[in-house]
Write a structure and sequence with these properties.
Order of helices and strands: HEEHEHEHEHHH
Radius of gyration: 17 Å
Number of helices: 7
Oligomer: single chain
Structural class: alpha/beta
Strand order of the largest sheet: 1-2-5-3-4
Largest sheet: 5 strands, mixed
């Protein structure tokens, strides 16, 4: 029935209950319920937003952010994933709800990068969490599967920074 999305919450899950939630884009009614039931303080939209989403957030005093994860160059996408991970980890923004259109591909990327960058998880731990939650990180979301893009992020952003830190000279106490 065509009005179901205006009534029911779609694909909404706790990453960290009370702090971080993820899911699909919601129509105004379900979005209002999510905000009220979970005390959401920040919404982060990862796709082109629905016209009413920002207005609903503003009417309820919720900070609304747009961090588009489109089919852009990997470096730009990685910068935006870093930005998302920082928002999710900021206790002043929590509880935070982040979403993409269906709550699958871009939300998987966001959750995994948050876990790897801000929680210290390995790539495999982050992928395992997605699988245990019923998501397939090998599913295609465009040109590359989520797992392939996350492996590249891990290699180019996380491991290269760790290697740079290890090569940096330690200041002496003299």
């Amino acid at each position: 029935w065509p009005l179901r999305d205006h009534v029911f919450v779609k694909n909404f899950h706790a990453v960290e209950p009370g702090g971080v939630y993820r899911g699909a884009e919601q129509k105004p009614g379900p979005l209002r319920r999510i905000i009220k039931q979970h005390g959401i303080r920040t919404i982060v939209c990862l796709v082109d937003p629905e016209p009413n989403e920002q207005a609903v957030a503003k009417s309820l005093g919720v900070d609304w952010r747009w961090v588009p994860l489109g089919d852009s160059e990997a470096a730009t996408m990685f910068d935006r994933l870093d930005e998302l991970a920082n928002i999710l980890a900021d206790p002043t923004k929590q509880p935070v709800f982040f979403h993409c259109r269906r709550g699958v591909y871009r939300s998987n990327l966001g959750q995994a990068v948050y876990r790897m960058k801000r929680c210290g998880w390995t790539l495999e731990q982050a992928l395992d969490e997605l699988r245990k939650s019923g998501y397939d990180p090998e599913e295609s979301g465009g040109d590359q599967s989520c797992a392939v893009l996350l492996a590249r992020y891990d290699r180019e952003r996380l491991r290269s920074r760790t290697a740079d830190d290890e090569r940096s000279p330690t200041p002496s106490g003299n």
